[in-house]
Amino acid sequence: MLAATAATGAMVLAGCAGGGNEDTINIAVANHPWTDAVLANVEEFEAETGLNVEVTSYTEDQLSQQLNVRLNANADDIDVMMVRPLQEIRTFDRNGWLADLTEQATSDEEWDWADFQEGPQESVTLDDRVLGVPLATEREVLYYRTDLLEAAGLDVPQTLEELETAAQTIQDQNPDVYGFVSRGARAAAVTQFSSFLYSYGADWVAEDGSSGIGTPEAREAYTFYGDMLRNYGPPGVTNMSWPEAMGIFTQGRAAFYTEADSLYTNATDPSNSTVSDVVGFAQFPEGPAGSRPTNVPSWALAVPASSNNQDSAWEFIRWATNQENTIVAQENGVIGARASAWETEMPDIPADLAAAQRTSAEVGVGYSHPVVLNVSRARDIVGDPIVTAIEGGDVDAALDSADRAFTEFLASENE
C-alpha cells in the first residue's frame, strides 16, 4: 500500500524503503498539486500491478538536495523521482544519473508519447534520448483589465505593437494606472522576457552554439521590453519578480501584465485580487516572428540509473502520466503536457484562459531561459541587458558585453 503520512511545512512525509525489493517502488516527489491529485489514486495502480508504492515527499529545495546527495552516492533506494527539466535534466545526465527511457516511451502506442506537446517533449530529450516524462506545464499569457479596455474603446491587443499602443492609451487616460507590468529583476525577468525574444525571431543560443543575444532581432526584443517597463511600468520594477509584479496588477494598478498562466488564481481570487471580476486572459501578442510564448514543463518524472527496479518504475510512470491521470491532474489545476487533455472542457479554468492555453501550447517554445548546466550564471549574463534597457541605458553596449560573456560561458560549458 501507499506509504505516506501527512506532514506540515517543509517536513518530509515519509522515509523511503531501502532498495532491492522488487515488489516495492520507491518514489521521491515534491510537495505539489500534481502529487496530491494523482497519488491520491495510487491504490488503483497497486491493485492492477500487485506492486507497492512507497512515497517520500519534500519541499522543492529539499527534493533537489536529496536527489543530488542520493544519486551522487549511487544509491538504489529511489526508483522514480520528480525532477525540474530545465534546471536538472542536463546536469543529471552529465553525471550519468538518469536511465534512458527512449525505448519504453516511444514503443508504447497505447500510452502514446506522440500525444505529448513538442515543447515539453524537447525539454526532457537530449541527443534523441528520452530522459523523463513531463508532468506539469505553464505558458506565458497576457493578463489584462477588461474594464479599462472597454472604457478606452480598445480590442484585446493581438500584436506587441498594439500592446504598446493600448498601454500608452490607458495610462494616459488613467493617471493612477500603469500601462504595463512584468518582471524586471535581472534573473527573474529572463523567463518572462523569453516570449518577447522568441516572438522577435531571436533565441538565446545560435545554431553554431554561440550566443544569440547579439543579433538584430534580439536587440529589438531587449529594447522593446525595456521601453515597455520604463515608459509604462511602475517605479522600482528592476527589483520585481512575480510576487511584486502580480501585486501591482491585482491591486488594480496596471492594465496589462505578461506572466505564467499557472499563477492565474492570484488574479481571479477575490480574497487576493481587487480586480478579480475584470481580469481577462489572451494569448501572448504576436511579434515580427509571430506569437512564440514559452510552453515549459515545470516538473517531470524520471528514473535513476542506479535503480534496480527500472521496469517497475516505468510501469508507474506509464500509469501516472496516462491520459486519464493527466486529466485528473488538470481538473485539480495542474496543466499537463498531453495535447489530448485539451479535448476535455476545463470548467474550473476561465474560458478565455483555456483558449489562450490551447493556442499557446501549439506554438510555444519549450524553454524559458538558456538550456545550460549553470542556469543561474546564464540568467545573470543574459539578464543584465534587460535591466540596462529598463533603466534607459546603452542597450547596444550592454548587449555587446553580454554577448561576448555569454559566448565565452557557452564555450566553457562545452569543454
Radius of gyration: 22 Å
Poorly predicted regions are 1-19
Query: Within the CATH hierarchy, at the fold level, what is the topology of the largest domain?
Result: D-Maltodextrin-Binding Protein, domain 2
CATH class of the largest domain: Alpha Beta
For the largest beta-sheet, the strand count, sense and barrel status come to:
8 strands, mixed
Mean pLDDT: 92
In short:
This protein has 415 residues and is of the alpha/beta class. It has two domains: 24-137 and 297-351, D-Maltodextrin-Binding Protein, domain 2, CATH 3.40.190.10; 139-294 and 367-413, D-Maltodextrin-Binding Protein, domain 2 (3-Layer(aba) Sandwich), CATH 3.40.190. It is 44% helix and 14% strand.
Question: How would you describe the overall organization of this protein?
Answer:
- It is a single chain.
- The protein is of the alpha/beta class and 415 residues long.
- The protein folds into 2 domains: 169 residues, D-Maltodextrin-Binding Protein, domain 2, CATH 3.40.190.10; 203 residues, 3-Layer(aba) Sandwich (D-Maltodextrin-Binding Protein, domain 2).
- It is built from 17 helices and 10 strands.
- The strands form 2 sheets. Strands 1, 2, 3, 6, 7, 8, 9 and 10 form an 8-stranded mixed β-sheet that branches.
